[in-house]
Automatic annotation (TrEMBL):
Gene: pstA
Intracellular or extracellular location(s): Cell membrane
Main location: membrane
Membrane topology, record value: Multi-pass membrane protein
Provenance organism: Thermosynechococcus sichuanensis E542
Name assigned to this protein: Phosphate transport system permease protein PstA
GO cellular component: plasma membrane
Transmembrane portions of the chain: 30-55, 80-108, 128-148, 154-172, 203-220, 285-305
UniProt entry tagged with the keyword Transport: yes
């Protein structure tokens, strides 16, 4: 009672009210300044690191660096097998994770009955999104490599990274579908549309922008992953390319490349950084630039597609 009476007395006192407002404004300004300072420190650190990366690695970027395999001689070493392996692994990852993640998100949000089992699945999917990547590597080693006998192949790597980003795609898909107003569904049902027609013609196109955001986040994470790929046996030194997917003879398309051994850019960088020679450190910086540009290119493509989807949708 005394504390309530004290508060009421303060509220009746204009001077106390003004002092309280000024105190809150000062704290607000302090936290705004602290936020700007933290943002400035982060941006300056990022600019410094990226600038150092480009200053060290840019002179190494030439046609020979892109078309040469790794070598024990830093002057002859290149990233041919690494960037080809990265593209092939990410292609398999996207081919598996994107349709499977979107389909699972649609089912869980639009079709699955709302019961305790769905709640249990939701909790587990959310928890899987935060599991360390090395756990997925151990899972893939035991299941894909030893049980299914896929070996240390591009297929194993693609499925491993697909499992890694699948929870992110599922959660983002569900949140995007949930954000669509219920009135759109009801209007479509009112003109005789089936449930699948409502989803395919109305709900899914409207939510595609948010779904693509989740895909961008997942693919960006997959491109830079190293631990799960090393766990399943990715090579740190490989001088030959996988079999080409297009052949000169019938049936002209070959899938032998999915069973080929591989390496990726992050592993190649790790190999060079671990060596004492300064020239290999420069090579690692150049490979870092390529990885950064590759990540931005994939993100830029996804952002462009998201923009096109949003522009084509009229509410």
């Amino acid at each position: 009672m005394r504390s309530q009476q004290h508060i009421l007395n303060n509220l009746r006192n204009p001077i106390a009210i003004a002092a309280s407002i000024q105190s809150r404004k000062r704290w607000e300004q302090f936290f705004i300044a602290l936020g700007w300072f933290s943002l400035l420190v982060a941006l300056l650190t990022l600019v410094f690191l990226v600038s150092d990366l480009f200053l060290r690695g840019l002179p190494m970027l030439n046609w020979k660096f892109f078309t040469s395999p790794p070598s024990s001689d830093p002057e002859e070493a290149g990233i041919l097998t690494a960037w080809v392996g990265s593209l092939l692994v990410i292609f398999v990852t996207a081919l598996v994770a994107i349709p499977l993640g979107i389909a699972a998100g649609i089912y869980l949000e639009e079709y699955a009955p709302k019961n305790w089992l769905l709640d249990f699945i939701e909790v587990n999917i959310t928890n899987l999104a935060g599991v360390p990547s090395i756990i997925y590597g151990l899972l893939a080693l035991g299941f894909f490599v030893y049980i299914l006998n896929w070996g240390e192949s591009i297929l194993t790597a693609g499925f491993t990274l697909a499992l890694l980003i699948l929870p992110v795609v599922i959660v983002t898909t569900r949140e995007s579908l949930r954000a669509i107003p219920q009135g759109i569904r009801e209007a479509a049902y009112a003109v005789g549309s089936s449930r699948w027609q409502v989803i395919a013609d109305h709900v899914l196109p409207y939510s595609m922008g948010g779904i693509l955001t989740g895909i961008i986040v997942g693919i960006s994470r997959a491109i830079g992953e190293t631990a799960p790929l090393i766990t399943i046996g990715a090579l740190t030194f490989i001088t030959f390319l996988p079999d080409p997917p297009i052949q000169n003879e019938f049936p002209y398309i070959s899938f032998k490349w999915i069973w080929s051994p591989f390496t990726v850019l992050p592993i190649q960088m790790f190999n060079w950084v671990s060596r004492p020679q300064e020239a290999f450190q420069v090579n690692a910086a150049a490979a870092g630039i390529v990885l950064l540009v590759l990540t931005l290119a994939v993100n830029g493509t996804a952002i462009y597609l998201r923009y096109r989807f949003r522009k084509s949708i009229k509410w």
